[in-house]
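User: Show me a protein chain along with its predicted structure.
Assistant: Here is one chain, sequence first, then structure tokens.
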Amino acid sequence: MCAELLAEANGHIALTGGTTPARAYELAAELRPDWSSTELWWGDDRCVPPEHEWSNYGMAKRTLLDRIAVQPAAVHRVQGELGAERAADEYDRELENVTLDLVLLGMGSDGHIAPIYPHAPGLAERQRRAIAAEAKLEPLVDRVTMTIAVLELAPLVLFFVAGAERADAVRRAFAEPPSEATPASLVRSKKGQTVVILDPAAAQELQI
């Protein structure tokens, strides 16, 4: 379902990193060879060169961009090689007057989204569109992330979460009241839909 939603989307699309969405990107490339009606962004990325194995952009290039016949109208990657603060400033300026149409998010076992961790100062940021963020999990590389203020304006916010190690966080994020202890619980589309795609292991603590 995640691949199908990505393949059907137009406009400004924010991708995520991690291992979970890689197969969805491959399937989306098979479903849709022409991405010229889209512009791609990244909800966050590590401050490494684009060809680095830790780059979220690099992962999407290998699994999606290198597999399609017609490229997006624009690809807006985080210039992580500039360093966190400068790259965040550049991304913040690039996002000015942009409204994302689809945001794809993963979630960590502690309920974090992108590198916005429980009780992090970035949770309260409402003026900037992108900020620098310190890594708290391996690999310990500084990152740049979009802020919740940008993510929640997308008409479609799509969570894609897998794995039993995230089941407790899934329950807290989607079946309990919003809390800064679970950042994913704070991200909901203000203009449209929030869709959550879970595998059985991640969904095991939900009452369905």
